[in-house]
Amino acid sequence: MTDHYQSFVSSPVGRLFVKNLGLPDPTKLERWTEGAPVVDGTVVTGGSGRLGKALTVALDNLGVSNVGVAPEGEKFKALVFDATGITHSTDLIALQQFFTPLMRSLTSNARVLVLGTVPELVEDKAERVAQRALEGFTRSLGKEIGRGSTVNLVYVAPGAEETIESTLSFFLSPKSAYVSGQVARLGATGTTEAAPVADPAKPLTGKVAIVTGASRGIGEQIARVLHRDGATVLGIDVPQAASELQSLMKELDGDHLTLDITGKDAPQRIAQHVKTKFGQVHAVVHNAGITRDKKLANMGEDRWSSVIAVNLTAPERISRELLDQKLIEDNGRIVGVSSIAGIAGNVGQTNYAASKAGVIGLVDSLADDLDDGITINAVAPGFIITQMTAAVPFATREVGQRMNAMSQGGLPVDVAEAIAWYLSPGSTAVNGNVVRVCGQMMLGA
Ligand code: NAD
Description:
About 40% of the residues lie in helices and about 20% in strands. It is α/β, with parallel strands linked by helices. It is globular.
């Protein structure tokens, strides 16, 4: 699947059009390749607060070269600002003082990360106001930074300082190529304890991950990335997709199960398979999804029911069965795949948006209750170039691809990388999050 517009604007004639008509000019996004450093360049750190020490330790562990004072005339790949020391609105000036002089010294595909304190956990009223203000700053800078660069905010709960490494590794590296204007929370619910990662290059070694809808599109890429990170993937898909699923799982040394996840006994069959083959799993990624678009005035009951059944009821039932039978191991992971449509709504998608908003509800409803260090999070993809979006009419597709801060659609690997971050054993405090993988789409932002 290619982005024809992006190929066109990279051609000599296309460049002329971009220049003269002011057309969007998407920057080629850098993606992470195996063996590449977390950050290919220098990071400038700034601000002062309770994260200082943890930040230095985490950056050193990640092998990221960082400086506290930016040398004149150099270019930087990332800026990280510890804003946890900002306790009053008048202190917000520190953002301007740190960032403004550095904005012209960034490379393309740069990373900006602001670290704050989870506002809801701050007792002091003035501090809570100031911490909440960081969101507006981050989202605006994300919209103006350009050149394939991203800007994100990570709120760290008091006590969760030592857990930041896996999250820094995601947001500072090319793994977050299509994630911008996002707010992640660490330790807001669940544990604030850190867990060691034995082999950072293969953090999922020895772990089993279930991926539904694994035969193609985003699911296939999730399976590939989790395998890259060392996991054994149990891919699930419908019988019609059996041969694609089998050959992919063979390639990835994984395991497969063909069934319709909406089947009455599907949760029990998955549980039985897990029990006999693996004993327990580290993670379940509820990726399988369908669309059956129609305006509500023309919506038949079958379109409504099939979408809710695949996208929402099946993830609810399968998660429940695995949890009840204790088939998810300690420090395990549940991941939902929501959608921008579930956040912003979309014409012709009342059924789909209801199901995808429900996935966010599933995250909210379980995040506070899970025991044994199990977390639940979701990704909300924007416009990702797959067979699902190839079915979207041309004009809508073009608008979908351009209406974001990156002026382009994302790739399945971008969604997969966000899921791999959630699955990392180091992401103990990443719980209850819904992170959009949408290039900071204007819709519902
Ligand atoms: P896709 O249609 O290419 O793949 C979906 C997979 O799910 C297929 O392999 C399909 O066979 C499987 N599946 C469908 N119903 C199933 C069932 N009942 N039982 C088992 N497997 C079933 O779609 P995609 O674009 O790769 O999307 C993957 C997920 O991402 C979906 O949940 C989708 O809603 C979500 N999403 C996609 C986009 C996008 O832009 N592509 C945007 C937002 C959200």
